[in-house]
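Deliverable D5.2: sample structural annotation.
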Amino acid sequence: RLINLRKKNAIIYKKLFQNKSYVQIQEEISESSWFGFSFILTGKLKNKRDKLIKILDYYNIENRPIVAGNIKKHKMMKYFKNLSFKNLRNASLVNKNGFMLGNSHKNLKKQLEFVSNLISKL
């Protein structure tokens, strides 16, 4: 029941953010529980995630990085000197431009519309 209610929010999320030139959103390849909504800033907003995060924080809109970003950039990597990585271009892109917002079983239409307006004004 909770997953079905979160899926209703996912429909709103997709309607608000799909086909926007400044953000890429997740695609549902199989069946998702929609625990959150992921965004990758593109176009005019590429490399402006930190600015957007400050705005979201100002409005007390909780956000998180997508997974852990580029593991190669984590401080703990100094302990793994023997590991070798090629260019992690996509991981770096997500690390610099990606973030997530949580979902709920409650109707988030007003909140998602507010976030959509914030992002589009940036």
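Annotation notes: The chain has four helices and three strands. The helical segments are 2-17, 49-58, 89-97, 109-121.
The annotation will be released with the project's public dataset once the embargo ends.
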